[in-house]
Amino acid sequence: MKETYNRRNFMKTTAAAGVGLTMANSSSIFGKSISAEKNKIGIIGLDTSHCIAFTKEFNAQNPDAALGGYKVVAAYPKGSSEIESSYSRIPKYTEEMKGMGVKIVSSIEELLKLVDVVLLETNDGRLHLEQALPVLKAGKTMFIDKPITASLSDAMIIFEKAKQYKVPVFSSSSLRYIVNAQLAANGEIGKIVGASTYSPASLEKTHPDLFWYGIHGVEVLYTVMGTGCKSVTRVFTEGTDVVVGVWEDGLIGTFRGTRTGKHGYGGTAFGEEGTLSLSPYPGYKPLLLEIVKFFQTGNVPVRQEDTLEILAFMEAADESKRLGGKQASLEVVWERAKAKANN
Length: 343
Hints:
alpha/beta; Rossmann fold; seven-stranded mixed beta sheet
């Protein structure tokens, strides 16, 4: 890529790229008309339980009216070919999808001819850039499941290509939509002065440590804290991670990732006017409702700058681990990713 990235300017322009005008029946986004009638969903990647759970909601005999009549009509099954826990699921999930009336296709190109919008569900984030590019070139609005990519640099490229092709894209963990996390982010307890979150953080050797599963708890942390983290310090043991982030205004946010004991999701938000417990986990439905609104309007519910900084935070956590627990700068991580994206 020839364009030189600047962290602040890049985040401002990519965040602005997701802004659209909401209308009753259609919207104009990037000069394209997005109509609520274009409701055929295609799924890329049948190596995650999300493809089954999401399709059950959309293709239910009596689906929730809030899902806007969207239906999964086609799927391209190929996902990871290296991660056993992923590729071993594909045959079973393929048969389940057929049972829900979904046409199985042999290529992404074939899929794109049959659908209006796309859910990129492949479990292996390393494949997302390659799989996203033909979707973007085809002008199909797309949700990319977590992790959006297996590197900050790949995510930069996806967002730059989305801007180039004028296609709305967003990514999120369903944990972002814990009710109290949303309340805290919207001022329920006044100005946020800190947060502490936790989630399982199982490791997968093909991905940076927190990208594989710890991203869920990190997403909750960022839902409450917002962007602006300057540095990260990580304490690592075989069973637990504790990652401490220091934000620009001196606020502290922490994430605890677990690999032993009973797993759970949650945390605490600290505000000037009180505290909120960040639980319970609401399941997939709130995320699906946001995806439907996104498909209908082109309005991006999670800013690209938030997604990018979540990845920078997690890469900085790996950097701190490599440094033996010393503080790692997000700016250093950003510059490294920028150089890689530009090559």
